[in-house]
Amino acid sequence: MPEQFSDDPLKVAEEWMDEGRAVAVATVVETWGSAPRPVGSHLVIDGDSNFEGSVSGGCVEGAVIADALDVIETGEPKMLEFGVADETAWRVGLSCGGRIRVYVERLG
């Protein structure tokens, strides 16, 4: 039977932590232009790369997950910035042309 997903990524994070999983949360803290997700949107990631939620509608989730795994490992939070006008534009980009800033921290 397929796993059922919650509409609330933070609730999923709480459930995962209750199961003993290491978890990080990525939160959109600032947007410019036509960013696809509003400030306050969340993506939660566990140490096995499972994730729930979205910070960009799929544009930068892969890069955020990779950084979140590092945050889980080190415990050091990171501020990430993505957009068409920075060095990450060739690695990841927002198809809408906006820019976002995402804060990633370990929970628990």
Automatic annotation (TrEMBL):
Signal peptide: none
UniProt xrefs under InterPro entries: MoCofactor_Util/Proc, XdhC_CoxI
Pfam families per the UniProt record, alphabetical: XdhC_CoxI
Domain XdhC- CoxI: 16-83
Coiled-coil segments on the chain, per record: none
Protein name: XdhC family protein
Source species: Oricola thermophila
